[in-house]
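STRUCTURE REQUEST FORM
Protein name: Amine oxidase domain-containing protein
Source organism: Periophthalmus magnuspinnatus
Requested output: structure tokens
Priority: standard
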Amino acid sequence: MDSVKSENINAKIVIVGSGIAGISAAVELTAAGFTNVQILEATGRSGGRIKTGDNVVEIGANWIHGPSEENPVFCLARRYGLLDPEALTPENQAMEVGGHPPWMTCLEILEEKKWADADKATRSLGFSVVSNLLKGECCVNGTHSLDEVGLGAFSLYKTLPGLDCTFPKGYEGLIQNLLSELPSDTVKYNCPVRCIEWNNTETESPVIVECEDGDRMTADHVIVTVSLGYLKKHHSTLFRPPLPLHKLHSIQRQGFGTNNKIFVEFDSAWWDADCEVMHFLWEDENSLVDKTLDLQSSWIKKLFGFTVLKPTERYGHLLCGWIAGHESEYMETLSDQEVTQAVTQLIRRFTGNPILTPKRVLRSQWFHNPWTCGSYSFPGTGCSSQDLKNLAEPLPTTGPQPLQVLFAGEATHPCFYSTVHGALLTGQREADRLLSHYSSTSTNHVLSKL
Ligand SMILES: Cc1cc2nc3c(=O)[nH]c(=O)nc-3n(C[C@H](O)[C@H](O)[C@H](O)COP(=O)(O)OP(=O)(O)OC[C@H]3O[C@@H](n4cnc5c(N)ncnc54)[C@H](O)[C@@H]3O)c2cc1C
Ligand SMILES: *[C@@H]1O[C@H](CO)[C@@H](O)[C@H](O)[C@H]1NC(C)=O
Ligand SMILES: *[C@@H]1O[C@H](CO)[C@@H](O)[C@H](O)[C@H]1NC(C)=O
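Status: completed
Returned output:
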């Protein structure tokens, strides 16, 4: 790692957001010698979309996607001793699974049924299976419908080798370990940033950050790590002067959608011990047309199924349902009782057991979280790799005071968007940008003296 010349370590750097991107930027800058690094976090906690609840239930990120040497989240988790021994084995790291969660097995059903020359009933089943498969893909992509996912940009997403693994004591352990690398007062909590005034020429520092409570602080550089959903919604008030048009258009083109989890706990398991996923197939879904007619009665049909959380010793008898898109956003507006009732009815209907009753139901609400405004990004239709570059572009790139506002966060990674490792790498990227800025200006400085 570069380290900065002593005359620059006082540069004031403000980081907006204490998720994995903001924290990794702060860790890198602090380790390089910057002493004036401040994270401003809107909520009372760090981690953002990494959020572990009671009983190690992951409200947000769950897996390390592609846990192998190239994955910085894997390497950090290993260093901090946060993983199960199986996850560390070379066999696990070498597994090539194409980055898909374990529910993509229904394709096999299609093949088994020799679907091409099937009778009407089998065909109808085939449609139900495909429909279910698409719902699962919507969850993976965090989108309402795959029609909204840009085909051109599809191939941008890269998977890493390794069989996805989890954090046995919770993903937030990663956040706690990283925070322990920072001076204790680095994060200021309950401090939503309202406006970033950049391009100031009258004041000594080019940027002024204004918080919700009216507090204003000056900075040489601000690293913005808020979600793409937040940017889409608040860009016009968050930046003064406004963002350049090409950047704004890229923010609008890039997709940001909702994927939520519904955890359902039972006193005992009513599923087989070897069951990993349950899919719900609906007979009347023999057309792939998007039906958003009556959300109130049909939202639950968007839930593609449940994964079974294992091991039982850790989680008890716990299922995790997955639901994406508008139905998911609608689900967030319902009361706990309404969600519980819909899930209970669904399970009773599909098992034929009229008395099955969950002990507890807990759902995420990422769309209505005012600091996230959804779950994660996906390449929208018409979105190209240039748009992803534009999202990551700092302001301004040239002039006497470049790099006043920098952009990190999941959505700004060119190929690992929508993941924790992608977010972490973008934080490091922007820290590196500042490091090389200061090392090169220092070098120039030294050279001009010679
Ligand atoms: C349901 C779900 C499941 C997921 N599963 C996985 C998974 O299994 N594996 C995986 O790799 N990834 C997964 N992800 C994605 C992963 O969680 C994110 O990509 C990653 O955590 C994003 O980190 P970030 O730092 O970019 O953003 P965030 O974590 O969103 O951090 C941004 C921070 O900025 C704060 N903020 C927002 N506005 C302001 C403001 N105005 N002022 C101050 N602070 C502000 C927010 O409160 C937040 O703390 C999942 C996400 C969700 C929602
Ligand atoms: C989105 O879905 C497509 C098609 O089903 C899949 O190939 C792609 O990997 C998904 N994107 C992500 C980020 O997982
Ligand atoms: C930044 O300030 C300079 C000098 O005052 C001005 O010429 C330029 O237009 C400003 N840029 C933006 C994006 O407002």
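Reviewer notes: Residues 199, 201, 241 surround 2-acetamido-2-deoxy-beta-D-glucopyranose (ligand 3) (CB under 6 Å). The chain has two domains: 6-52+170-255+373-449, 100-158+259-363.
Form closed.
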